[in-house]
Structure formats: C-alpha cells, structure tokens
Write a structure and sequence with these properties.
single chain, alpha/beta, five-stranded parallel beta sheet, 8 helices
Length: 242
C-alpha cells in the first residue's frame, strides 16, 4: 500500500515516524509538508501543491489547519488515492462544516474519507468513539486499520494477579500503546483499568484538551484516547480470565 502523509508540525511528525517504524513490509510511505496558508478560503489549492506528488492509495491527513484540509480533494486527484483518513485530534483543524464539504466533494470523485476522532479510534469497521462513532466501507482504510488504530492487546496474568506479559496486536498510530504497555507490565490486573488509560495520556497524548459540548455532556478528545486504551485493556483482561 502506498500512503501519502500530509503534515505541518510535531503532531504529524511523531505519528509519521511511528508508522514508518512499524509499517508492514511492502508499504511505501511518503510525506508532504503543507505550507502555511493565510487565506481562509482556498480557491486555487493546486497553487500550494508540488508539481509531482507521488501516487498513493491512501492519504493520511495530519496537517494542523483548516486551510490545509481544503487541499484534500486536489491531493486525492493528483495522487489517484481512493481513500483519505483525516485525523480529528483537534476539532478546529477540520471543523464539522468542512468535514461535510470534503465528504461531498470526495464522494463525487469516488474517494472515501473518514474522520476518526481521535485518530486512535479507527478500526476495521468504524471510526470515532461513543457519539462520534461512524461506520465505513473501504478496503484501503481497512488495510491501514489492521495495523494502526484502536489498541488490541493480549495479556497474561500470573498467580499473584499481576500482568506478566502483554502483546500488542494493534497499536495506536502515535505510538502511545507501546509506551503504556511497558509501564503496565507487572501491575496488579485489578488496577490496570483505569490506570493504564491515564498512562496512555502521559505519552503525552497530542489530542486536544479543549472542553467541547458533546452529546453526553462537556468532554475533551484527549480523554477519549485514554478511554479507548482502557477499552482495549478491559477486553484483553476478560479474555485472559476465560
């Protein structure tokens, strides 16, 4: 699979590095550092793109501005990609109105776009968490999410009730799963949730800490990152006890 990653700063750079280090054999990963764009509405997106973008199957959008997100239809056209994953770790980078616009424009091009909120909420059938959960059907996105997304863990608990072994079957795109697993090993299983979710945020998680109004009340995207890890840990502990 050929992936083109759009990035603008440390947020995207860290995720890109983790994906490059852990990508399966045969994947090709290129990056495009999106320039700063001052105009609020980008009428001529091609002006901001290099003349020879590499071909791609999947565009992973990690850029940090709404202006950068407006380039996505032009990038998809130039690369021939059939899928886009646009991370929503900060709502302002891709506001809801822009998400709807991108969905309409890309659908006309037969390109699937999904908006995982946060990025680690993606799996092989859905993106998002709780009220933001949305299904999708696209094999390119599914292939990416087989390796990066909601953590899938296998744990072993020793006779003293402590976590003795942890295997990562799928880790978060940012690398926080590996960070957390190293610190959970040896912990009493009964304390692993919610403690491990808090450890996940200490990576540190780069999702937004801004409180926003959600369907279930005021919350942050960052807190959902911890909940997603806890969910993976809960499933692993339940399986280990069967």
């Amino acid at each position: 699979m050929k992936i083109l990653i759009l990035q603008q700063g440390i947020y995207g750079e860290r995720i890109t590095e983790n994906i490059k280090n852990k990508a399966p054999e045969g994947w090709s990963i290129s990056t495009f550092n999106v320039p700063a764009i001052q105009e609020p509405i980008v009428d001529e997106p091609e002006e901001y793109l290099p003349k020879n973008l590499p071909s791609a199957d999947l565009i992973l959008h990690l850029a940090e501005s709404a202006q950068a997100a407006q380039l996505l239809p032009a990038v998809a056209k130039a690369t021939g990609a059939d899928a886009v994953i646009a991370s929503i770790d900060t709502t302002a980078w891709v506001p809801m109105g822009l998400r709807n616009q991108l969905h309409r424009e890309l659908a006309k091009m037969d390109v699937t776009i999904v908006f995982p909120e946060p990025l680690c909420s993606i799996d092989e059938e859905t993106v998002g968490f709780n009220e933001s959960l949305q299904p999708y059907t696209n094999e390119t996105i599914r292939e990416f999410s087989r390796y990066f997304g909601k953590p899938i863990l296998e744990v072993k608990v020793d006779g003293e009730g402590r976590i003795s072994e942890i295997e990562i079957l799928r880790g978060s795109p940012c690398g926080s799963t590996e960070y957390t697993v190293k610190r959970v090993k040896g912990m009493p299983a009964e304390k692993a949730v919610p403690t491990s979710g808090l450890m996940c945020l200490h990576y540190p998680c780069l999702a937004s800490m801004t409180f926003e109004q959600k369907a279930n009340g005021v919350d942050t995207i960052m807190h959902n990152s911890g909940r997603i890890f806890n969910e993976g840990m809960e499933k692993a502990l339940k399986k280990a006890s069967e």
